[in-house]
């Protein structure tokens, strides 16, 4: 399965492409304060991309892929 | 993939109730495949394509879901989402976007108008509460609502202006459009429609957007191609770098005087320098 993370795009500049270490990080847990995304490119660009600006509402974040 | 239509349903059904759907495309597929999926499934929610998220929102397997509750904290994390989790949390959102679960009775109509996105109407109703002979708690809530609208207008205006400086004209248009439509009739939004038209009609902005899109397509294509290569092999890497140089230089030539062209030129130079660095090592090995 081809599964290069988008964060690796700039890694084209660094040879050879390395495994994405961040995949091994635990990330946010239930109870943790949400962290804003830092996104360069979107499909359907949102006017409100910062979670911190949406406090009081509910946010659903889903990471997905094609296969 | 089968869940994409369901995400659209959630976006449409629960959006007006205070749900914001964000998705992170966590694979390296080319834009052509992503665009086809978006068109086929009529996806309307935002899809993040690149940036920094893997540290906070890692996805060792897909899909992975996080739900952020009204207090800004993660309330769910897992592979498959039960809609009941969303429904339970959304029940706490009485006035979407307001950031307040309850208001004084006198402000109920204003808060409801705010929750429906009728911001000008909400401010008008809140101002009436402020100007009228209202209890202190109601005036305080009314002032909060007016400040909330003003804060949103300020955030959108600053985001649009910064996006223009950074030549992200897609984001600038989205923000000006939001101000010109959902905030129409509010103070300090009178010029939003004119700003939107200015950006839409700006030939340089159109050029920048086309160049930015071309760069995105190219980067994803190259990345996708690289995924099948053995880049540990010096010959393969050399050929790939040469291909990158050619592709980046082509893009810079086709989209002159754009930010993407400058970036492409810089990337080509980095690849060229890397090729040069690799040369002595190759000779030493002989």
Tell me what you see in this structure.
The complex is a heterodimer of chains A (67) and B (286). Chain A contains no helices and two strands. Chain A has strands at residues 38-43, 58-64. Chain A has a domain at 27-67. Chain A is an all-beta fold. With 286 residues, chain B is mostly helical. Chain B has a two-stranded parallel ribbon with strand order 1-2. The relative contact order of chain B is 0.07. The chains are: A mainly beta (67), B mainly alpha (286). Strand 2 (58-64) of chain A pairs parallel with strand 1 (19-25) of chain B, so a sheet runs across the interface.
Question: What is this structure, in a nutshell?
Answer:
The complex is a heterodimer of chains A (about 70) and B (about 290). In chain A, about 40% of the residues are buried. Mean pLDDT of chain A is about 75; it is low at about 1-10 and about 15-25.
Q: How far apart, in Å, are the first and last alpha carbons of chain B?
A: 51 Å
The helix/strand order of chain A is EE
Please list the strands of the largest sheet of chain B in the order they lie side by side: 1-2
Any idea what the shape of chain A is? globular
**Helix-strand category of chain A:** mainly beta
Given the structure, what is the number of helices of chain B?
Answer: 11
**Radius of gyration of chain A using CA atoms only:** 15 Å
The unreliable regions of chain B are none
The number of distinct β-strands of chain B equals 4
Number of domains of chain B: 3
Q: From the alpha carbons, calculate the radius of gyration of chain B and give it in angstroms.
A: 25 Å
Mean pLDDT of chain A: 75
- Helical amount among residues of chain B, as a percent range? 55-70%
Percent strand of chain B equals: 5-15%
């Amino acid at each position: 399965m081809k599964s290069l993370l988008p964060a690796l795009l700039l890694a084209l500049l660094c040879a050879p492409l390395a495994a994405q270490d961040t995949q091994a990080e635990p990330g946010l847990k239930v109870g943790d304060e949400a962290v804003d995304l830092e996104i360069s490119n979107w499909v359907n660009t949102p006017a409100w991309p910062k979670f911190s600006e949406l406090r009081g509402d509910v946010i659903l974040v889903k990471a997905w892929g094609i296969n | 993939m089968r869940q994409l239509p369901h995400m659209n349903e959630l976006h449409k059904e629960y959006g007006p109730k205070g749900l914001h759907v964000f998705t992170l495309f966590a694979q390296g597929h080319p834009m052509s495949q992503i665009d086809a999926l978006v068109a086929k499934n009529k996806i309307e929610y935002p899809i993040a394509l690149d940036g920094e998220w893997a540290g906070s929102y890692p996805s060792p397997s897909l899909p992975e879901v996080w739900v952020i509750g009204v207090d800004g904290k993660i309330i769910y994390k897992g592979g498959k989402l039960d809609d009941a989790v969303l429904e339970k949390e959304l029940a706490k959102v009485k006035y979407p976007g307001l950031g307040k679960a309850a208001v004084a009775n006198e402000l109920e109509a204003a808060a409801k108008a705010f929750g429906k996105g009728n911001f000008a109407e909400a401010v008008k109703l809140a101002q009436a509460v402020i100007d009228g002979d209202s209890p202190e708690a109601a005036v305080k809530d009314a002032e909060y609502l007016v400040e909330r609208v003003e804060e949103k207008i300020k955030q959108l205006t600053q985001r649009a202006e910064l996006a223009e400086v950074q030549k992200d004209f897609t984001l600038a248009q989205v923000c000006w459009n939001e101000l010109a439509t959902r905030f129409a009739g509010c103070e300090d939004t009178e010029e939003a429609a004119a700003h939107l038209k200015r950006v839409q009609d700006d030939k340089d902005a159109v050029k920048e957007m086309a160049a930015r899109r071309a760069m995105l397509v190219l980067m994803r294509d190259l990345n996708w191609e690289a995924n099948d290569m053995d880049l540990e092999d010096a010959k393969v890497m050399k050929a790939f770098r040469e291909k990158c140089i050619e592709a980046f230089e082509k893009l810079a030539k086709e989209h002159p005087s754009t930010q993407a062209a400058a970036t492409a030129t810089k990337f080509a130079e980095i690849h060229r320098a890397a090729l040069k660095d690799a040369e002595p090592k190759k000779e030493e090995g002989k």
